[in-house]
Amino acid sequence: MSRKQVITVYAPKTESARADLLDDEDVLAEAHAAGNELCGSFFPSWADHLKEVRVYRRGHPMPMSAPGSWSKLQRATPLDHAPVYFSHSDNSGTVSDLYEAALGSIKAAEKALTHV
To answer: Which domain holds residue 17?
Structure first.
């Protein structure tokens, strides 16, 4: 294969296993295991070409088409949980871009400073 390829694997964790995502060593071990399983079991010819495995620890990588996901969950994502403040452009209600993410980060940092 002469051109670059990307494969996306969606593997959600059960609620009881999500705490594992807080430990960097566990996440790295899981990423290596996923790459080994993918190349060893499914696509052996990829083993020499696999360059990167990305693990998203927070959020949901795909829109969920479920009742209440927009009317309830999306409204709850920008709410403050002092002293933790989330910042992302996806919940700003405007365009999801770097500019909105930066503005949200500034607002979150200002709120967090009240706890320092």
So the answer is: 1-62
